[in-house]
Amino acid sequence: MNKSQNHPIKVVGSINGLISLAIEEKDLFLWNPSVSKLKNSLTGRFTSYGFGYDELYDDYKVVGITKYLCYDDSRYNVGKVYSLNNNSWKRLDDFQIVIQFPRSGVFVNGKLHWTNTAKRFGYHNDWDIIFVDLADGR
């Protein structure tokens, strides 16, 4: 018996008519619906994505964030940036922080932003905003 499977599709972002979609946090697609072009399967196992446009290099970029569990049970996130022009991923070396809420990044002024907090004693406190500059990857 062949059952239909539901795979959650999430819109990561949209810039200049180009749409970024993620399926089950592992398959990423860049879609231009006006010309019916699809750049597919930029694979990775990410807990959060962001999508934006790098004006300096005239390039569309995706940031993928992966959650890691250390040997001492601590957790941190590592980021990677995908460049559409280069068709490749690059690791963000300085991005080893904890993001509590896996959401899509918000693109503002050339940077992708996420809200972040520390959870202590069951409560979220110390809210801040973290960002990745798409031009320099910091």
Briefly characterize the structure:
This protein has 138 residues and is mainly β.
Class of secondary structure makeup: mainly beta
Widest β-sheet, arrangement of strands: 1-2-3-4
Run of helices and strands: EEEEEEEEEEE
Radius of gyration: 16 Å
pLDDT < 50 stretches: none
Helical segment tally?
0
Number of domains: 1
Which descriptor suits the 3D outline? Answer: globular
The share of residues in helices is under 10%
Mean pLDDT: 78
Organism: Capsicum annuum
Protein name: F-box associated beta-propeller type 1 domain-containing protein
Domain F-box associated beta-propeller type: 6-119
Pfam family, one: FBA_1
What does this protein structure show overall?
It comes from Capsicum annuum. The chain has 138 residues and is an all-beta fold. The chain has one domain (9-133). Helix content is 0%, strand content 60%. The strands form three sheets. Strands 1-2-3-4 form a four-stranded antiparallel beta sheet, with no helix packed on it. A four-stranded antiparallel beta sheet has the order 5-6-7-8, with no helix packed on it. The chain has a three-stranded antiparallel beta sheet with strand order 9-10-11, with no helix packed on it. The chain is globular. The model has no long low-confidence stretch (mean pLDDT 78).
